[in-house]
Every structure is written in C-alpha cells, then in structure tokens.
Amino acid sequence: MIELNEVKKIDEITHAEWQIVRLIWTMGASSSRSIIDAVASKRDWKESTIKTLLGRLVKKGLLTRVKQGQHFVYSSTVSEQNAMNLSAEELFKQMCDMRKGQTIMDLVSQSKISKGDINQLVKMLNQKLKTAPDKVDCNCLPGNMNMDCQ
C-alpha cells in the first residue's frame, strides 16, 4: 500500500530534482563526485547547483546520504517504479473520471512500448473489460459548467 508521505514526497519534486533522482535510479547508490560528474556531462549545471539539489532531495526524504571517506553516498528511498506510479496516480486524481480513458489512450499512442508490454496491456484490458461499466460517471464538482463532461 502506498503511504501518504510517499505521495507528498513525489508531489514536491521539481523538474531539476527529477533529473537527479532518475540518475541515481540508473546508477544506484553513488558518491557525490560521481553524481556531479555524470550530471556535468549532460547539463551545464555548476557543482554547487547539483549539491543544492542533492541536499533538497535528502531534506524531502527522497534520498539518503551517508558519509564514506571524503564523499557522501546518496541512495534513493523510493523505487523508480513506485515513484512513477505515485506520480501518475496523483495526476489521475485531479482528472474527471470521464477523461481518464482518453488520456490513457493518448499516452499509449504517443509512447514507445515494447511488444511484450503491449501484450500485457491487451491481457489486462481484456480482463478489465469483463467487469467494466458501460459508462463512467463524471466526478467533477457540481455546478462546474466549464468541464463539459455531461
């Protein structure tokens, strides 16, 4: 089960912080030096900027920092898949239920997806089809005429 504090953590990540966390997911537990070098090879960011971002992510509870020799070693506290799921769930909570199907279709049509993933999606959708309602009700606030859901 996803805890509320994990959702709050993911919800607070800036675009720049996402880039740092994604790098750590790719590299695994890494020294500050290796993180700085990896980011510097892709971005025109100063070392102080990268250290600030690392510090913010530690403060937000998304990274841990352990001193090893002359460097700190950073590790993620949330798995990449869990973070992606939390982020998507938060986005979908803000959306009218009637719009979710089209949004998912748009995402699938615009995304690079392997044949294996497509087969899994087809299986999942066929299973979901067995119990799906004919129509999904609007869950927008009453009186909001700009939603055009009806």
Task: Note down, in words, how this protein is organized.
This protein is mostly helical. The protein has 2 domains: 4-76, Orthogonal Bundle (Arc Repressor Mutant, subunit A); 96-135. The protein contains 7 helices and 3 strands. It has helices at residues 4-11, 15-27, 32-42, 47-59, 80-93, 97-110, 115-129, and strands at residues 30-31, 63-68, 71-76. A 3-stranded antiparallel β-sheet has the order 1-3-2. Helix 1 (4-11) packs across helix 5, helix 2 crosses helix 4 and helix 3 packs across helix 4 (47-59). The longest helix has 15 residues, at 115-129. 12% of the residues are buried. The model has no long low-confidence stretch (mean pLDDT 90).
Topology:
Blueprint: H1 4-11, H2 15-27, E1 30-31, H3 32-42, H4 47-59, E2 63-68, E3 71-76, H5 80-93, H6 97-110, H7 115-129
Antiparallel strand pairs: 1-3, 2-3
Model regions low in confidence, pLDDT < 50 over at least 5 residues: none
Determine the CATH topology of the largest domain.
Answer: Arc Repressor Mutant, subunit A
Q: What is the level 1 CATH name of the largest domain?
A: Mainly Alpha
Task: Please compute the radius of gyration using only Cα atoms.
Answer: 20 Å
- The CATH architecture of the largest domain: Orthogonal Bundle
Instruction: Give the averaged pLDDT, no decimals.
Output: 90
| H/E series | HHEHHEEHHH
Share of residues in strands: 5-15%
CA distance, first residue to last residue: 33 Å
Read across the widest sheet, the strand sequence of neighbours is 1-3-2
The biggest beta sheet reads: 3 strands, antiparallel
Q: DSSP helix count?
A: 7
The helicity comes to 55-70%
Number of domain units: 2
| DSSP summary, beta strand count | 3
Structural class: mainly alpha
CATH superfamily of the largest domain: Winged helix-like DNA-binding domain superfamily/Winged helix DNA-binding domain
- What's the assembly state of these chains? single chain
Organism: Fructilactobacillus fructivorans
Pfam families: Penicillinase_R (PF03965)
Family: Belongs to the BlaI transcriptional regulatory family.
GO biological process, one term: negative regulation of DNA-templated transcription
